[in-house]
């Protein structure tokens, strides 16, 4: 009810989007590195005082596919490119984008997924993105590919994701955003194969908070001066 009233009102709504882009992109890189190198195995070995050397992967030359090329998606593209990864993106329009080798539109989702070694969700959850990653999408991914979500839960169909993890359609997952938060203690995701869970904590930094304050203060000054505001929310799109 409140959302509908806000959407239908003439009140201009702004947000602090972009304030967490840097740490979210860092968090995605951390998850990619941990999954690619099976870092949990090292952590377990240290806990058990075992010298466990093994052959692991590297990100160099792999394909990072980013769903949503907003602030955090674009910062991730820059970081992934610095790791010598191929970067592709998926968004509503296919115009060329810096640090992104190729951009796909949503109707080419499954083709996009088939190229990726990592699929990273950086998109907002809207009526258009909710549940967009369903069984057919996960089956379109490589069995060696990993799924990472740091923006919003609910973009992936969680039943399909669990099946993908347990039945080996994909290699693993790094999940910072979840359909239900806090993630319940009995959630099957805690024990899903080759899955790293973090508590929607990727952007919880002092700098994120400060950037949010800075955006608010800039907008307050703009409002008092009668100037155009930044980060105006499109209430129909929801972001």
If you had to describe this structure to a student in words, what would you say it looks like?
The protein has helices at 2-8, 21-36, 39-47, 71-82, 109-115, 135-140, 158-166, 206-224; strands spanning 63-67, 86-90, 102-104, 118-121, 146-149, 172-175, 195-197. Strands 3-2-1-4-5-6-7 form a seven-stranded parallel sheet, sandwiched between helices. It is of the alpha/beta class and 239 residues long. The chain folds into two domains: 19-40 and 56-203, Rossmann fold; 205-239.
Architecture blueprint of SSEs:
Layout: H1 2-8, H2 21-36, H3 39-47, E1 63-67, H4 71-82, E2 86-90, E3 102-104, H5 109-115, E4 118-121, H6 135-140, E5 146-149, H7 158-166, E6 172-175, E7 195-197, H8 206-224
Please summarize what this structure is:
Helix content is 36%, strand content 12%. The protein is of the alpha/beta class and 239 residues long.
Tell me the β content: 5-15%
Distance between the termini: 17 Å
Tell me how many strands there are. Answer: 7
* CATH arch. level architecture of the largest domain: 3-Layer(aba) Sandwich
CATH domain topology of the largest domain: Rossmann fold
Number of helical segments with 4 or more residues: 8
The proportion of residues forming helix, as a percent range, comes to: 25-40%
Strand count, sense and closure of the main sheet? 7 strands, parallel
Unreliable stretches (pLDDT < 50, length at least 5) are none
Structural class: alpha/beta
At the first level of CATH, what is the class of the largest domain?
Alpha Beta
The overall pLDDT average reads 96
Trace the largest sheet across and list its strands. 3-2-1-4-5-6-7
Helix and strand sequence? HHHEHEEHEHEHEEH
CATH superfamily of the largest domain: NAD(P)-binding Rossmann-like Domain
- Tell me, what's the shape? globular
Q: In angstroms, what is the radius of gyration?
A: 19 Å
How many structural domains can be distinguished in the coordinates? 2
């Amino acid at each position: 009810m409140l959302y509908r009233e806000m959407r239908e009102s003439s009140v201009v709504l702004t947000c602090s989007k972009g304030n967490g882009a840097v740490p979210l992109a860092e968090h995605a890189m951390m998850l990619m590195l941990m999954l690619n190198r099976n870092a949990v195995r090292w952590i377990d070995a240290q806990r058990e005082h075992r010298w466990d050397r093994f052959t692991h992967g590297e990100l160099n030359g792999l394909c990072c596919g980013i769903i949503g090329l907003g602030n955090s998606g674009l910062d991730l593209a820059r970081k992934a490119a610095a790791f010598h990864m191929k970067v592709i993106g998926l968004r509503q329009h296919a115009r060329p984008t810096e640090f992104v080798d190729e951009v796909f539109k949503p109707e080419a989702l499954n083709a996009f997924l088939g190229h990726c070694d990592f699929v990273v969700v950086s998109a907002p959850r809207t009526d258009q993105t909710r549940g967009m990653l369903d069984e057919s999408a996960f089956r379109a991914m490589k069995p060696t590919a990993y799924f990472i979500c740091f923006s919003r839960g609910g973009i992936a169909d969680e039943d399909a994701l669990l099946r993908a993890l347990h039945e080996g359609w994909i290699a693993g997952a790094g999940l910072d955003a979840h359909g239900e938060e806090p993630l319940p203690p009995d959630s099957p995701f805690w024990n899903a194969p080759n899955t790293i869970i973090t508590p929607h904590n990727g952007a919880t930094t002092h700098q994120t908070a400060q950037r949010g304050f800075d955006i608010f203060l800039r907008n307050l000054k703009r409002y008092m001066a009668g100037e155009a505001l930044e980060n105006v929310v499109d209430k129909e799109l929801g972001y």
